[in-house]
Amino acid sequence: MIKENQKQMYQDIQTLFEPQTSRPGWSPPPMDFRSASSLDKGHGRLERRRMTVSSLLASYSQWPGLMQVFKLERERRNALGKTEQEVVYGITSQASSRATPKQLLLLIRSHWGIENGLHYRRDRTLDEDRSQLRMGHAPHLLATLNNTAISLMARRGEDNLPRFQRTFAYQFDRALPQMVA
Question: Does 158 map to a domain?
């Protein structure tokens, strides 16, 4: 994803996807936009996503390896009818022959599965962001231990990290042999 801290690239992508206006008698410049959409229902909300992709910036951008840029529009409606809209921009080094808009839409969706499955657990449940470890190898060691705990949990087929932590903490003598089996 390209965020606003990458000002020039963000502006270039945003400008590319803005509606083109032309003077009377002139046609707008040719665009290579390709799109795909998805509609998902779950967790009490309906989410519609539309991915629009272009290769036009690849020929003049200074960004290394840039092959395509995209605009992802999300619209979420919760069970109470409240609607939220969001637009994000991104880049990829995948050529249009290898990554269609539909494939990119699925790839972005799977990225959030990783974010929610690992990073969210590390940040929220294990409270890694508030850690006071700052020196030497301690931050790396903590991250390694947290990843190991999450991996052990997944290996056992558990999906609830807090419940897994409680089981392990209260029944250490029973939990440890199950981990290595």
Answer: no
